[in-house]
Write a sequence for this structure.
């Protein structure tokens, strides 16, 4: 990466840190301030080229850490995406995979077979970020993230590899924050229609995403599943023909997962409603 881009990254990251510090100094939002700034999915969908922070900005900071979400919000992400796992003692927390292996360097450490106390003894590596020298960060419990962001940002919530029998438990956790129908978007691969069904019962919107390679392997995938989802998603690098196919289903479509301004430009040219972004520091300045 050239010096100009690194310089811009440093400036934006510093600005985000300053904003986080100011928010911390101000203390928790008063109920009136919270209501005034309450998120709304309809308003998000009406925002041109809205951006969702993928795992809190997984190319910028240790993914799905509380730190990452603070920075993503401070830099101006319109919504935050959470991928969740569940421990053996019933604690939901930010984790994209079934194991801690990729994010913490463990070997065969399945979250579902360990307690939260065991998970919490590890830290999230910055190895997947642009700056691999930054500190490791703790894993974040869903309870912690909801305390900070529930009712304050639109949250795209994905139960990932957790069995659908635990979906009612996750629904109950999200419902503890008032007006969940205004700020929850249930997110999952298009084939996971059980989560979309749970969302519909709660009055939540849902986003089912797929990849062009999946449609190549299973041409009937969208035919079987698209009706379950309010929003659809396709990878930004998919061929134009695939984009036309998904857009033709008549639902808002989000591009994923973006890391460059050029990809944002392509997403806009394709007429996407928004985009899921992992490198916010690189992409946010390119947003109109």
């Amino acid at each position: 990466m050239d010096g100009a881009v690194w310089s811009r990254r440093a400036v934006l990251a510093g600005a985000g840190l300053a904003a986080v510090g100011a928010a911390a100094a101000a203390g928790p939002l008063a109920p009136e301030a919270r209501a005034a700034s309450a998120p709304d999915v309809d308003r998000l969908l009406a925002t041109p080229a809205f951006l969702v922070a993928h795992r809190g900005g997984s190319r910028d900071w240790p993914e799905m850490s509380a730190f990452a979400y603070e920075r993503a919000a401070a830099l101006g992400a319109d919504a935050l995406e959470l991928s969740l796992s569940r421990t053996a003692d019933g604690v939901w927390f930010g984790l994209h995979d079934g194991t801690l292996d990729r994010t913490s360097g463990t070997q065969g450490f399945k979250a579902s077979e360990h307690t939260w106390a065991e998970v919490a003894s590890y830290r999230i590596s910055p190895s997947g970020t642009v700056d691999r020298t930054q500190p490791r960060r703790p894993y974040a419990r869903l309870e912690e993230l909801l305390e900070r962001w529930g009712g304050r940002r639109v949250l795209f919530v994905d139960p990932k590899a957790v069995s659908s029998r635990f979906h009612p438990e996750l629904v109950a956790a999200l419902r503890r924050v008032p007006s969940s129908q205004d700020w929850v978007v249930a997110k999952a691969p298009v084939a996971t229609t059980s989560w979309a069904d749970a969302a519909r019962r709660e009055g939540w919107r849902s986003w089912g995403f797929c990849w062009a390679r999946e449609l190549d392997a299973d041409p009937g995938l969208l035919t079987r599943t698209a009706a379950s989802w309010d929003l659809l998603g396709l990878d930004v690098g998919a061929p134009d023909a695939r984009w036309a196919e998904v857009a033709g289903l008549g639902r808002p479509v989000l591009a994923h997962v973006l890391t460059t301004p050029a990809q944002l430009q392509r997403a806009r040219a394709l007429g996407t409603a928004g985009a899921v972004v992992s490198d916010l520091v690189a992409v946010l300045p390119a947003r109109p």
